[in-house]
Amino acid sequence: VQTSADAILMPVPRRIEGDYVEVVAQDGSVHRIERAITRPAIRDRSLEQFDEGPEPDAVAIFPYELEGAPPRAKLIPSERMATEFPGAWAYLQLHRERLEARAMQGGPGDGWYRYGRSQSLTLLDAPKIVVRVMSTVPRYAYDPDGLVAPGGGDGGPYYFIRPLADQSAEYQRFLIALLSHPVIDAIVVANGRAFRGGYYVHRKQFLQDLPIPAPGDRLG
């Protein structure tokens, strides 16, 4: 997701206890945010090869609710934020000036606390593959827990691969093994962009046309 303010909207928790998450604001003050409005997130977590269920290192303040079928992400109105999530609302109000200063389509308006972009917010809950975009070796992790992670340009830091409706957890693990194979990764490296230190980019542009056999196919 793109919050356009990860340091504020994806804070690293100081403590998680009961129904609250304790975070430190940018002015050094400590705030207790309602856990019900947060989601587990990874912001700068190193992924191991064949990782399973990466441990969150942050929380995403998620001021949305999913409605309808198919679901649609709707911003929680400010009046409800203030009454139902007063701890989160006080924290957001403290950072209002910085959140309003973000470049947002249509300007911040009353929704100054929303994410910079709202695409794909309904697609986070299902199991998926998390990709570390900049890496020296392929790093793909299976996420069964609906993690939120910041995205962006070549530097990422993360990218999600969402399975099709009929693709099982076993298939996703098969796909991770295949994408991690040295031959397949050599194709990614050859088509991708190189950076200093042996880092290469792993994202959609360089992954979408890879030759992927079906499980059980005999190769060669």
Quick overview:
The chain has 220 residues and is an alpha+beta fold.
Helix-residue proportion? 10-25%
- For the biggest β-sheet, the strand order reads 5-11-9-12
Oligomer: single chain
Rounded mean pLDDT is 88
Instruction: Characterize the biggest β-sheet.
Output: 4 strands, mixed
Radius of gyration: 19 Å
How many H/I helical runs? 7
State the secondary-structure class: alpha+beta
Measured by DSSP, the beta-strand proportion falls in 15-25%
Number of strands: 14
Shape: elongated
Poorly predicted regions are: none
Supply the key terms.
220 residues; alpha+beta; four-stranded mixed β-sheet; three-stranded antiparallel β-sheet; 7 helices; elongated
Describe the structure.
- This protein is α+β, with helices and mostly antiparallel strands.
- It contains seven helices and 14 strands.
- It has helices at residues 6-9, 78-84, 86-94, 96-100, 169-179, 182-191, 204-207; strands at 15-17, 20-24, 30-34, 38-41, 51-52, 58-61, 64-67, 72-75, 128-132, 134-135, 140-143, 158-161, 194-195, 199-201.
- Strands 5-11-9-12 form a four-stranded mixed beta sheet, covered by helices on one side. A three-stranded antiparallel beta sheet has the order 1-2-3.
- The longest helix has 11 residues, at 169-179.
- The protein is elongated and about 60 Å long.
- It starts with 5 loop residues before the first helix and ends in a 13-residue tail after the last helix.
